[in-house]
Design a protein that fits this description.
By secondary structure, the chain is of the alpha+beta class. Strands 2, 3, 4, 5, 10, 18 and 19 form a 7-stranded mixed sheet that branches. Strand 14 and strand 15 form a beta hairpin. The longest helix is centred in the N-terminal third of the chain and has 41 residues. It starts with a helix and ends in a 14-residue tail after the last strand.
């Protein structure tokens, strides 16, 4: 009986275990089915996308950068393809040791090392950085045979930017460079982040920077199927990149080079504008530099030489150099006197050679006797404009000159423009700290009338104001961009400009000022340079102090260091009856405007109106500062062939 009971209990325990195990199995299958439901039904789309992402890789296709041309189709910026030897620092145990080993295979110069060092300082550790560019096929083959020895080093084919004209127009054209961390953060925070995937270079200065969006193009993508190890298996689909648009400039690069040659080793600015459209025909800043050295990354030594040079070749003097404008300011002061009712064209002022105000004597150079507006401009009477400035007052001068663009941003389509200084009582109060400095003194107004004192403007502002006067008071935004060329269709479309703003001047007042400027050329200080011209021009010389000279002291250039001497200025236009070109020129520390600046303006206008290019002897004389009227037989512009100063490698 006992055995039967024991058997029943054992069977009951066994059956209980079977039931428990069965329930556990059912529960497990239930969990499995539930999980399968979640994976296969609820998360199907998400997991499918993840699986597809793991299986595929999206590779950006960087577009070809658009080209830059001058108004006549001369190529100013283009691209070329070349092999580069690149190092990814974080993949290399000892960078210097690796470079030393590479130099045994491929020539790596000290300059290459310095450039790589500078790039490394400005880049992230996981960026691929070039140690050598423009590898030959033989060098590529040498490295390929030894590739296994250099983890973290690779050869890549890249597009490089080339500036065929070298130093000519460098400040205007600008250059591209590797995207730095600050620029990357700015791009990542913008709507253009996706379009810059894979892009390593960006416009840094000049047209390259201001037209970056148009020149860059649109990045394409390629979807690749990859293996578990991340290697590409096959291409699934692609969306091609669209090359950037090409930019056509209003500048005549042949004129630009001619003017740069005329300066020689001298420093200064020359700007030529078509007053009827606001187009810049030339924008010279001397000295200049070769933008090609920035393309692959400039080395530390070259950067230091450029950046610390006393001549400051990297400074775009046309837009960032500010100067007192000297007597070239007088025509605009004359217009201010007429428009404000302080003077009429026939108002007579006695010029006795100096003028005393508040016990202080202001020099005028030489006595002219009775002068009206025309004679005051023609013979540059300081007394006429001293008294006019005193009658108007600083704030009235400020309010008249501001719409003309003095001390203002002109809005030119280039980056980096500075405002300069157009003084007023408010400006001085906000600029200086001590109470006695904040006060405006009446005597400070006097020098403003002849373009001195606190006045500090760019030559771009001065030439822009002249263009406004010549276009009968229509203020146009100066610009260098003329049109864009579609990379696919080749269609050319003009770059739209804002409409001109009419400043409301009386035509008779503007004509009176222009007549005075014509008198400068026919019987004044501009006669030496323009007296033989086959057109009627107008102009105004100017001499601006680089350092202050006491009223009782006489200016003597021979006693001053070269960089302390006066600047030479000249503004000009032609033909007088229907101006087609406005020119502003400054030659730093060159003295009298008629002797150094006016001859440059003459040759610019001869080029534009007559199609004449200076003779070689004339250019040599100009570079020495000896030129007035052109010498020798001028050449025809169409006979002058521009040769690229740098050739991209094949």
């Amino acid at each position: 009986m006992t055995e039967i009971q024991n058997s029943d209990r054992a069977f009951s325990r066994f059956r209980l275990r079977v039931v428990v195990i069965g329930l556990v199995v059912v529960l497990c299958f239930g969990i499995l089915l539930s999980r399968l439901y979640v994976l296969q039904i609820e998360r199907h789309d998400d997991l499918l996308a993840q699986a597809e992402s793991n299986r595929t890789a999206v590779v950006p296709i960087v577009p070809n950068r658009g080209q830059i041309y001058d108004r006549n189709g001369v190529l100013l910026a283009t691209n070329y393809s070349a092999y580069t030897l690149e190092i990814t620092p974080y993949k290399v145990s000892d960078v210097e040791e690796t470079i030393d080993a590479l130099s045994e295979l491929i020539e790596i110069t000290p300059r290459d090392r310095r450039r790589f060092k500078r790039l490394r300082e400005d880049s992230r550790n996981f960026d691929s950085l070039p140690i050598r560019s423009r590898l030959t096929d033989q060098e590529v083959a040498k490295f390929a045979a030894q590739r296994y020895r250099f983890p973290g080093v690779d050869v890549k084919a890249r597009l490089f930017r080339s500036y065929p004209m070298g130093e000519t127009g460098a400040h205007l054209i600008g250059y591209i460079g590797r995207i730095n961390q600050r620029e990357k953060e700015r791009i990542d925070d913008s709507d253009e982040a996706a379009n810059y995937r894979g892009t390593e270079y960006i416009g840094k200065t000049g047209v390259e920077a201001s037209y970056e969006k148009e020149l860059h193009g649109h990045t394409g993508v390629e979807r690749m199927e990859t293996s578990a190890g991340g290697h590409a298996v096959r291409k699934l689909d692609s969306s091609p990149a669209t090359p950037g648009e090409s930019v056509v400039l209003s500048v005549d690069i042949k004129l630009q080079k001619m003017v740069e040659d005329l300066y020689g080793e001298r420093r200064g600015v020359a700007i030529a504008i078509d007053p009827r459209s606001g187009e810049l025909l030339a924008m010279v800043s001397k000295p200049t530099f070769d933008p090609n050295i920035f393309v692959e990354g400039i080395d530390q030594e070259s950067w230091k030489a450029l950046n610390e040079s006393i001549d400051r070749p990297l400074l775009n003097r046309a837009m960032r150099g500010t100067y007192p404008t000297g007597s070239t300011y007088k025509p605009f002061m004359g217009l201010a006197g007429l428009e404000t009712g302080k003077r009429t064209p026939s108002t007579i002022i006695q010029d006795g050679g100096s003028w005393t105000f508040g016990g202080h004597t202001f020099r005028s150079g030489h006595a002219l006797g009775p002068v009206d507006l025309n004679r005051a401009i023609q013979h540059s009477s300081n007394v006429y404009f001293y008294t006019l400035a005193n009658e108007m007052g600083v704030d009235a001068i400020h309010d008249f000159m501001k719409p003309l663009g003095f001390g203002q941003i002109t809005g030119i389509d280039l980056p980096g423009e500075v405002r300069g200084v157009l003084p007023s009582t408010t400006w001085k109060r906000e600029t200086y700290k001590r109470p006695e400095q904040k006060r405006w003194y009446a005597g400070e107004t006097i020098s403003l009338g002849i373009g001195q004192g606190y006045n500090n403007f760019t030559i771009l502002q001065l030439t822009h104001a002249l263009a406004t006067l010549l276009d009968n008071g229509n203020s146009r935004v100066p610009h260098v961009g003329r049109s864009l060329i579609d990379p696919v269709t080749g269609e050319r479309r003009p770059i739209e400009q804002p409409p001109p703003v009419n400043l409301g001047y009386k035509q008779s007042n503007m004509d009176a000022v222009k007549r005075g400027m014509v008198s400068v050329v026919t019987g004044g200080t501009g006669r030496g340079s323009f007296g033989t011209a086959r057109y009627t021009a107008g102009g105004k010389t100017g001499t601006a102090q680089a350092i202050s000279i006491g009223q009782k002291e006489k200016y003597n250039a021979a006693r001053l260091a070269e960089r302390q001497r006066d600047h030479a200025l000249y503004i000009a236009f032609a033909p007088a009856e229907d101006p087609k070109i406005a020119v502003g020129v400054i030659v730093e520390n060159a003295g009298f405007g008629a002797g150094s600046a006016a001859p440059i303006a003459r040759r610019i206008i001869d080029y534009w109106l007559l199609g004449e290019y200076p003779s070689e002897a004339d250019i040599a004389a100009m570079q020495r500062g000896d030129g007035r009227a052109p010498m020798g037989t001028p050449r025809r512009v169409e006979d002058i062939q521009l040769k690229p100063q740098t050739e991209p490698p094949q």
